[in-house]
TrEMBL record:
This is Secretagogin. GO terms for biological process: regulation of long-term synaptic potentiation; regulation of presynaptic cytosolic calcium ion concentration. It is found in: Cytoplasm. Residues 8-43, 101-136, 145-180, 193-228 form the EF-hand domain. SUPFAM superfamilies: EF-hand. It comes from Gadus morhua (Atlantic cod). The keyword Cell cycle does not apply. PANTHER family: CALBINDIN, SECRETAGOGIN.
Length: 272
């Protein structure tokens, strides 16, 4: 069973995936998961007698093998492991010590590897990312292996096959956690709660603790703010929205957002 997915090629696998992850949130859970497995079984040519009970059994066996986050959700990067080259170096890409839970860290990576600043990560840029990642683990990788890894990654994560990874595609590769801002309900809370939430929010994005949001800190904040309204903004949209946000909030025009500027912007009075 574990290798059953080997019979699916990448394109077929992704077609099934995109069908079931229709809202493109990068994971499949609950009832969708049953349907997903039923569909995969059918495509793999399992006999019709695979009734509900058998689907459940296969699902459980499968999930305990691959569901690395053990959260009952199947994530695209977990699924990707099945069709990507199964060698130790490559698995490093998906095996992270700490979850990436801050969009500021994410944007730092994005800005670093989008070398030509065209708002997308090309295969060439992805290759540099993979090379660095493997080196960080003190491993060696041959150029041909690196090419193979890069091709495989582009196949899985470049959804529209334009040779370009969007912010959202990279977020999948890096297994980015849910939007930090989702936990707050700025409209519903009392003034006291709003202030406390504001402190939490500012601290989260002021990663280098300078008391102001600058550079990628603003990027990360803009990304999360905008994705509360509309998931999957592009890097180009992000750049535009950043200019708009700075125009609105950066009162002293230094290109950074001081704490008092952000509190004014969000309608929260700063602490005296
Ligand atoms: Ca680029
Ligand atoms: Ca693309
Ligand atoms: Ca800062
Ligand atoms: Ca400012």
């Amino acid at each position: 069973m574990e290798r059953a997915f080997d019979q699916l090629d990448a394109a077929e696998f992704l077609a099934i995936w995109h069908h079931f992850d229709a809202d493109d949130n990068g994971y499949i859970e609950g009832k969708e998961l049953d349907e997903f497995f039923r569909h995969v079984m059918k495509r793999l040519g399992f006999p019709k007698e695979y009734d509900n009970e058998n689907v459940q059994k296969l699902k459980q066996r499968f999930m305990s093998t691959y569901d690395v986050t053990a959260d009952g959700k199947l994530q695209i990067q977990e699924l990707a492991l099945m069709i990507l080259p199964a060698d130790e170096n490559f698995l490093l890409v998906f095996r992270r010590e700490a979850p990436l839970d801050n969009s500021v860290d994410f944007m730092k990576i994005w800005r670093k590897y989008d070398v030509d600043c065209n708002g997308c990560i090309s295969a060439q840029e992805l290759k540099a990312f993979l090379r660095d990642l493997i080196q960080q683990h003190h491993k060696e990788v041959s150029p041909s292996k690196l090419d193979e890894y890069t091709d495989a990654m582009m196949k899985v994560f470049d959804k529209n096959k334009d040779g370009c990874l969007e912010l959202n595609d990279m977020a999948r590769i890096l297994a980015m956690e849910d939007n930090f801002l989702l936990q707050f309900q700025l409209d519903a809370s009392s003034q006291g709660e709003r202030k406390r939430d504001f402190e939490k929010i500012f601290t989260h994005y002021d990663v280098n603790k300078t008391g102001e949001l600058e550079g990628v800190e603003v990027d990360g904040f803009v990304k999360d703010m905008m994705e509360l309204v509309r998931p999957s903004i592009t890097a180009k949209e992000l750049d535009k929205l950043k200019v708009i946000l700075l125009g609105h909030c950066d009162v002293n025009r230094d290109g950074k957002i001081q704490k008092n500027e952000l509190s004014l912007c969000l309608g929260v009075r700063p602490r005296p």
